[in-house]
Amino acid sequence: MLDFIxxxxxxxxxxxxxxxxxxxxxVKEIVKKGEMSENEGKSFLDDLKKKSKEAQKDFEExxxxxxxxxxxxxxxxxxxxxxxxxxxxxxxxxxxSK
Length: 98
Known about the structure:
The structure is a single chain. The protein is 89% helix and 0% strand. It is an all-alpha fold. The protein has one domain (2-97). The longest helix has 36 residues, at 38-73. The protein starts with a helix and ends with a helix. The relative contact order is 0.07.
């Protein structure tokens, strides 16, 4: 399941990178044709990059939330829960050995 999520995310990132490169080329062509100034093109790309980063952050937060929900439903311990148990066991060992 985790592999599927990783592959899906990597595919999405690959598509996003391809789209980014294509958009940059498209803006360069428009600037070259004089349909947009260089400053407008730069501003347009900067705005797209900002919105892309925001969308990526939102997507990652949603995936993380859904994954945590999935782990809860599957009744699988999280890393933090396992570490808490390890710490508790260590404390119990110290208490028993005294």
